[in-house]
Amino acid sequence: MTEQADTRERILDVAQRLVQHRGYHAVSYKDVGEQLGIRNASIHYHFPSKADLGLALVRRYRERLQVTLAALDVLSSPAERLSRFVDAYRDVVRDDGRVCLCTVLAAEDPALPETLRPEVRAFLDFNERWLARVLAEGRAEGELRFDGSPEAAAAAFLATLEGAMLLARSAHDPARFDLVVRHATAALHAARFFQGASP
Amino acid sequence: MTEQADTRERILDVAQRLVQHRGYHAVSYKDVGEQLGIRNASIHYHFPSKADLGLALVRRYRERLQVTLAALDVLSSPAERLSRFVDAYRDVVRDDGRVCLCTVLAAEDPALPETLRPEVRAFLDFNERWLARVLAEGRAEGELRFDGSPEAAAAAFLATLEGAMLLARSAHDPARFDLVVRHATAALHAARFFQGASP
DNA sequence: GTCTATAACTCGATAGAC
DNA sequence: GTCTATCGAGTTATAGAC
């Protein structure tokens, strides 16, 4: 039983890396099995259909982020929480040509199994809501500054993060992610108004 | 000859729509042929391999944008040019579940044919350079305002556009694209500093 | 230029031995 | 739980008739 659970998790680990790399349709059961030294039929034992595998992938991904962000909520400073949120995304980009799982899946959205699409959407929505809350608190406390609703600012910030991952990978330049993210983060800090006032 | 050229263009039209919808790997020669009433073998006459088709797709896409943006360069106002640039992207999102061709391809980047990847990168680079120039001029003329280098601001703005398309489509809410883009555009306008000063 | 036909391959998925 | 073996469908691509 422990063996089963372990194999199941290792399948998800490998599949997640591959999908983050290539996208959903360019990853096969055979690809996943080869990296684990097992046959594609064995993967069907754990995940009867590819849609099942994809579903488990996105759900685990979201659950893990929920745990990460819940841990950040104990921090008193909204700016600090925002910074740690960005760090979580940077960890994805850093090691090799990966991007956020749900960014890749969102790009294939209309071609995904019907069961998967609401899960991708739920992941993105969760990110937006968490960000909106942090931004709203940050503005209320005077630590962060932005115009418009927290919801719009949150959606824009998340969009920037997603796009930055794609740009950085296409350019084979991980530093471009930091360039963009530092720019977007700096714009949210109140100090910007004093710096920006002198041209 | 005119027939040939026409069919070739129509193949590209259909293929572009499909790839913007589903991604590169989820589109087949059969899919394209069915919408044109021809067989997949006929498409191989015009584009011997799928990599050839993909290459022609991205090159035509870039050339068209270059024409569009060259037409905008006659406008004296950088802010107006920026607004028209956003309009060009909005046109892509508007009608149905499409996103920018190169956003989709960038998401599959490591799984694309080797010949395609530099073309995707070139498209994104061209966008960044055009934006950087407009932003630099806009700041110099006092029409636009941002901190940091024009290159960083351009990369961030393009990243936001790309991400906004993915978010809007996943949410089945085209208005979300406008929400994000309006937020990002407003932040670049100098007037923001006066509006933003009153919380 | 487009067709039919098919080769050669890969895919997701199942059956049944162990 | 993992294996071998295989099915049926889909994929890119080619050959050759028209």
TrEMBL record, chains A, B:
Sorted keywords for this record are: DNA-binding, Transcription, Transcription regulation
Q: Which residues bind DNA?
A: 28-47
Q: Source organism's superkingdom?
A: Bacteria
Q: For this UniProt entry, which residues form the secretion signal? A: none
Q: Does the keyword DNA-binding apply?
A: yes
Transmembrane domains' residue ranges: none
Question: HTH tetR-type domain location, by residue?
Answer: 5-65
What GO MF terms are annotated?
Answer: DNA binding
Q: What protein name does the entry list?
A: TetR family transcriptional regulator
Q: Which organism is it from?
A: Deinococcus yavapaiensis KR-236
